[in-house]
Amino acid sequence: MLNTRIHSSYIVVTESDYSNRTSNILKLRLNSSQIEPKGLHRKLVSTTFSTTYNLEMATQYVEELICSARKLYDTEEYLAARALYTQLLALYPFDARMWHHRSNTHLKLRYPELAFTDAARGLQLLDDTLAKKTLSRDDQNDAVLLRLDVLYTCLLTAEALNSFQMALQYIDRLLANVHLLSSETRKVVLEKQATLRDKISQRISTLRGANVPLGVSIDTISNLGTMNVVKYPWDVSEPFTATNDLDAELKELNSAFEPFAPKLKIVLMPDNPALYTPERTSSIFFSKAGRPQLGIIARKKIKPKERILDETGIFVNNGLYGPKCNYCNSVLSISASNSNEMHKTTCSGCGERFCSVDCLHSALETYHKVLCGRDISHILTYVAKGTSCSSLIHLVVLRLLAIAVQSKQHPLEMTIVKYLARSAKEVVPWDVYQSYFFYLDVLKVLGLCPYSDIDKFDFWIYYTLRNKLIPNVFGEYKAPMKPANGKLLLFTSFLNHSCVPNAVYITDRHAHQVVVARKEGIEKNQQVFISYIDPDRPSIERQQLFETTYGFVCRCERCVRELGTNDEEEIRQKTAPSSN
Ligand SMILES: C[S@@+](CC[C@H](N)C(=O)[O-])C[C@H]1O[C@@H](n2cnc3c(N)ncnc32)[C@H](O)[C@@H]1O
């Protein structure tokens, strides 16, 4: 915590904050079960709320919760402290102090991305409150000091994310209030400033020598941070974890899969899913992302060119290449010859066009009621900026969250999300700041509040969703290297890649996709492979494409043969842009 000159023990209370708090407490009185903490403080809640609910008791209860959270933090029980701060945020969504506390807890838990997004929300609340100039002098002083604490936490998060430029910007903001910093703090901040400047020049000189990916400037890269791809311990939605009954879960998944692909079966894979043979199923590998690899095998012999999987998925397009159906990406004729037909396939609310009445109805049933008439031009700018199909993930995120809002489901519990594997990489280069702004923009389009909708739409949920989409969203480029169409299909996403595939996918109308065996057919128990990319490219190019888009190292039989190794790290080194 920042060592400010004046000791600060305060709560920022504004009038609107107070009325919010009062109304939240009144809500509590009506439904105490809603805020009952899971396990931890059950006793406290039941003793407080089983008696008469009155304002003082509720306030006292909340103060006790704050105290308990602080104690848990002090005794390094950070997960429990986080759970409690999250519950407190549900009660006090506009209290900057609470966001700051949770931010520090996330920092201790080594989730700097979450620490940053919490601190950023706290900072915004304080900036808004201070801009209104309605605080008493004392409250104003307290808010100014809290703001410095929060800025300091932002600096720590930027350091932990290796976002050196951003860390420097926070230092500038702290130094703008240098008169409020103690001499000790000032010294620490100035030392950090010097170290960060050194790190930036080191990073830039390393990058100048390296082969920087096309379309990315050194300045952008030098501000990129690194992020861990993790499963957050409080994420209980994910199946196939070490503690679950894997066989029972696979059985359930396969019974959902069977109607779409009666001749196929989803199975657990060994370490390298691309070299699966039936004998090796026993050596199941739990990836660092916390879930074993899955894949699809044939239950019976499959004839050449036989259709083996037929499912509907999520299709998105960025509209850059002429009008397309919003539901299935089919190209729309510029002016429909039959105006009656056009009328039937156009949304009466916003004028969005679809290729058929079926597509319009499917869109309305699943997501379009939420997105109807919403301006998504800002979201499209994120997609257009991308130099690979991965940027289409932005549109898939928007679509999935719209489905969650419309169907009132938790985004991570929706079937199409829940079963997806997360990115295979452990650490990814990532611009957390841009992602945070994107997250805020998406919430705005969906009409959600970044403070009060955190039970279903907190930043960690968005981040988990994004990590699950990286290896599973397939996209199409259009020249000159612009992402055009994207899609996510639940069952097809269990198909592993091979540079010598035995199946191909064909996109049909109305968001259908069919997987068909190639001309050789597929033997019983053989794994079914598709190719995620053009397999005619040379092996180095193929690997580089995987690395920058889906984020994995291909270890299929052809790559292993051509590169002479099955080892992920060796392949990475042999095919890295700078090594050739
Ligand atoms: C679309 S998913 C395929 C299904 C995935 N195995 C699962 O468990 O859900 C893509 C992921 O599968 C793994 N994978 C697929 N093909 C692979 C290959 N040829 N070599 C290595 N890993 C592969 C990678 O982890 C990749 O990120």
TrEMBL record:
Protein name: SET domain-containing protein
A Pfam family annotated for this UniProt entry: SET
Keyword line: Methyltransferase, S-adenosyl-L-methionine, Transferase
Domain SET: 279-533
Organism (species): Adineta ricciae
Matching CDD domains: SET_SMYD
Recorded GO MF terms: histone H4K20 methyltransferase activity
Domain of life: Eukaryota
Keyword tRNA processing in annotation: no
GO biological processes: methylation; negative regulation of gene expression, epigenetic
